[in-house]
């Protein structure tokens, strides 16, 4: 199931970027998935729900937008700024 590998990389990238920006909790992640990418949105959602546990995305919702092409891209994420010191 390559969806687990893909979503693990997405979680890692979002977590790293959020930490650099002082975000302590991610509330939502929006991805685009190309129709030729061979990624199953339901499987990706399932893997996201498993892989996000114990991360700053633990309560985050995943929005998947289908489009033409073969890419999987992180469109945006939303989160909450850390109050004071943050640890990453």
TrEMBL record:
InterPro entries documented for this protein: HypA/HybF
GO molecular function, one term: zinc ion binding
Organism: Dethiobacter alkaliphilus AHT 1
A Pfam family the protein falls into: HypA
UniProt-listed GO biological process terms: protein maturation
Designated name of the protein: Hydrogenase maturation nickel metallochaperone HypA
Top-level taxon: Bacteria
Keyword tags: Metal-binding, Nickel, Zinc
Higher taxonomy: Bacteria, Bacillati, Bacillota, Dethiobacteria, Dethiobacterales
